[in-house]
Amino acid sequence: MEIYNSLVDIVGQERISNSQEELFIYSRDAGAQKPRSVDYVVMPKTVEEVQKILLLANREGIPVTPMGGGFTLSALVVPNKGGIVLDMKRMDNIIEVNERNRYALIEAGVSQAALKSYLEENHPHLQHSTPEAPPTVTVVGNALIQGHGHISPRYGVNSEMINGMEVVLPTGEVCKTGSCSVSPSWFTRGPLPDLSGLFIGWYGTTGVVTKLSLRLFPKPRFREVLAFSTDDVDIIPDAISGVTQFDLLEDFFLIMQEKPDWMNHVFFVLILSGHFEEEFDLKKRIYRDFFEEFKGGKIEFVEDLHPALRKRFLDVPPLASLAADFRKGGGFEYTGAILPIESIPEAWRGGLEIAHKYGMICSYVHQILAGPSVMFGFNYSFNRADEEDAEIW
Ligand SMILES: Cc1cc2nc3c(=O)[nH]c(=O)nc-3n(C[C@H](O)[C@H](O)[C@H](O)COP(=O)(O)OP(=O)(O)OC[C@H]3O[C@@H](n4cnc5c(N)ncnc54)[C@H](O)[C@@H]3O)c2cc1C
Question: Which backbone phi and psi does 391 adopt, to 5 degrees?
C-alpha cells in the first residue's frame, strides 16, 4: 500500500490501479503468450510525473514496463517480473506540425489514428508512414520497435523517421536527442553524435520516451495498385531485385495463401503513386513492361483484381493481412524475420511445411523494404477459445 499511495501522490487516484479487474487486461496481450502478473498500472500525463514514477521505482527496485498500444503481439508490454506498467495513452498531445520542415512533434501516447486524422483535417497534403497495425497503436511504440509503414519501402523503416526524442532515464533525468537537444527546433537528428540508438530497439529498458519528432511526407495526388502473379517461388528474389531497381514504388507486398484456391499463387502487389499524371502513367507502364519481359513472361498481370482487395491495398494503412484466413475465436499471430531477399524461397517452403505438419492454413504477407530486404511473416489464425488449437500455435 505504501507504493500504491506514493503513486497516488504522483498521478492522483484516477490514473493508477492495482485492482485485479483492471490488471487482468494488462497481464496479457492479443498474441499467443501466456498471461503474466502486473502489480500496478499507472497512466502519467506529464514528463514530471514520469520522472517521479521512475525515481520512485528506481529507489524501491520496482520494474517498469512502458506501454503504448500494446499490440506487438509478442507480450513486449507484459512485464516479466511484475511491477508497474506505465501506460502512456494519457500523454496524447500533438504538440506541433511543422509544415515547412515537415515534421510532427507528438507525445508518446498519440495513436496512429489520432495523428492520421489530425493531418487529414489540418494538413491534408502531408502524411506519415503508417503501419498496418490496429489504429489504437502508438506512433512512438511503432517507431521505437523499428516498425514499418505504408511508405517504408520508399523511405525506410519508421525508426528512421525520428528527428529527435525527449526521454526520461531510469534516474529521472530528462535526456534529448537530435536538434532539439541544442535548439528549440525538432527538425533533424544530425549532424550531432546520434544518441537515438540508445533508445531505439531497446523496448523501453533504457528510458521512457515522452516526446518524439516524426518526419512527414508530401501526399501524392494519384495512387494505384498493380498485381502480378506466378507459381514459381524460385524466381522471387530476381523479380524483387529487378522491380526495386527503379526505386519508384510507394509500397510493395508479396502475398500468398492456400485458401481460397484463387489465392494459391505468389502475388506481387505494387502500390504506385505520383504527384503528376504523366509521372504516374509512366510508372504504371514501366512496371507492366518489366513483368512482361521478365523471364519470358513467367509472371502475369492480374487483370481482374477484386475491387475489395484493390481498396484494401489502397487504404492507408493498407489492410493486406485482412486477406488472411481468419477463424473464429479471435486468435491471430504472425511470426517471421527481416531477411535478405535470396532467403525467401527457403523461408516460404519452410513455413508451408510447418503449417501442413500441424494442419494449419497460413498466409504470408511480406513487405519489401528498402535495401531491398523483406519483412517476412507468416500469419496464422487460431481459435483462442479452443485450447488444442491455441496449443498448436
Ligand atoms: C493486425 C496487425 C498488423 C500489424 N501490422 C504492422 C505493420 O504493418 N508494421 C509494423 O511495424 N507493425 C505492425 N504490427 C505490430 C504492432 O501492432 C505495431 O508495430 C505497433 O505500432 C506497435 O505500437 P504499440 O503502441 O502497440 O507498441 P507497444 O506494444 O505498446 O510497445 C512496443 C515496445 O515499445 C516499448 N514502448 C512503448 N512506448 C514506449 C515509450 N514511450 N518509451 C519507451 N518504450 C516504449 C514497449 O515497452 C514495447 O517494448 C501489427 C500488429 C497487428 C495486430
Answer: -65, -40
Lowest-confidence segment of 68-72, 80-84, 360-364 by average pLDDT: 360-364
Buried b (16+ CB within 10 A) or exposed e, 350-385: ebbeebeeeebebbbbbbbbeebbbbbbbbbbbebe
Q: Is the pTM of this model over 0.90?
A: yes
* Mean pLDDT score, 55-80: 95
Instruction: Output the CA 362–ligand 1 centroid distance in Å.
Output: 22
Residue with cell 506466378: 230
What is the amino acid identity at position 185? Answer: S
Q: Are 259 and 325 in contact (CB under 8 A)?
A: yes
Identify the H or E element spanning 389: helix 387-392
Instruction: Report pLDDT for 327.
Output: 62
Residue 193 pLDDT class (50, 70, 90 cuts): very high
At 358 the pLDDT is: 82
CA of 74 from ligand 1 middle (Å) equals 10
Task: Write down the pLDDT at residue 264.
Answer: 87
List the Cα angle 41/42/48 in 5-degree steps: 160
List the Cα angle 145/150/152 in 5-degree steps: 60
Of all residues in the chain, what percent carry a pLDDT higher than 90? 71
Distance from the CA of 145 to the center of ligand 1, in angstroms? Answer: 7
Is the backbone of residue 218 left (phi > 0), alpha (psi -120 to 50) or beta? beta
- Ligand 1 pocket: which residues have CB below 6 Å? 65-73, 76-77, 88, 108, 131-134, 137-138, 140-142, 144-145, 147-148, 203-204, 208-209, 321
Which alpha helices (DSSP H) does 12-127 contain, by range?
Answer: 20-26, 47-60, 112-122
- Indicate the pLDDT class of residue 322, thresholds 50, 70 and 90: low
Check residue 135 and report its DSSP letter.
Answer: T
- CB-based contact 223:271 (threshold 8 Å): yes
In angstroms and rounded to an integer, the radius of gyration of the C-alpha atoms of the chain is 22
CA 185 vs. chain centroid, Å, equals: 26
Instruction: Report residue 96's pLDDT band, with 50, 70 and 90 as the boundaries.
Output: very high
Hey, what's the cell of 341?
Answer: 531477399
